[in-house]
Specification:
By secondary structure, this protein is mainly β. Helices cover 0% and strands 81% of the residues. The protein contains no helices and six strands. The protein has a three-stranded antiparallel beta sheet, with no helix packed on it. Strand 4 and strand 5 form a beta hairpin. The radius of gyration is 44 Å and the shape is rod-shaped. The model has no long low-confidence stretch (mean pLDDT 92).
């Protein structure tokens, strides 16, 4: 028969790579307006007279009409992110005749690089 004298199984040089990115966009639109009539001259009599009992009056008005409108728009964008690399994920399960079963404990190291 066969006898087990040693066994090694696991992962070596294991690495995980990932990336995360957050993209924020804000948009705001706003408008305002003015529609106003400003009377510059109101009921200015130019000529006033009577013919018998019938009165006559000639007058004029000068209105100034102002119309104004404005539209505003603003957009802001922010992008943030990072590349992530995790190494040291090695895990091994080992058996040998002298010492029996043993295993290695992973010692992960994380490296982040901002984008």
């Amino acid at each position: 028969w066969f006898k087990l004298s040693s066994l090694l199984i696991g992962t070596t040089n294991t690495k995980m790579e990932g990336s995360v990115e957050l993209d924020l966009v804000a948009t705001k639109n706003w408008g305002t307006g003015v529609d106003k009539v400003i009377p510059i001259v109101q009921h200015a009599t130019a000529l006033k007279f009577r013919v018998g009992r019938v009165p006559f009056e000639i007058y004029f008005d000068v209105p100034l009409e102002v119309k104004l409108s404005a539209q505003f728009s603003a957009t802001a964008e922010a992008i943030a992110g990072a590349d992530v690399v995790v190494t040291g994920l090695d895990y091994n399960l080992k058996f040998d005749k002298k010492s029996g079963w043993s295993h290695t404990t992973p010692a992960p190291q994380v490296a982040m690089t901002p984008k």
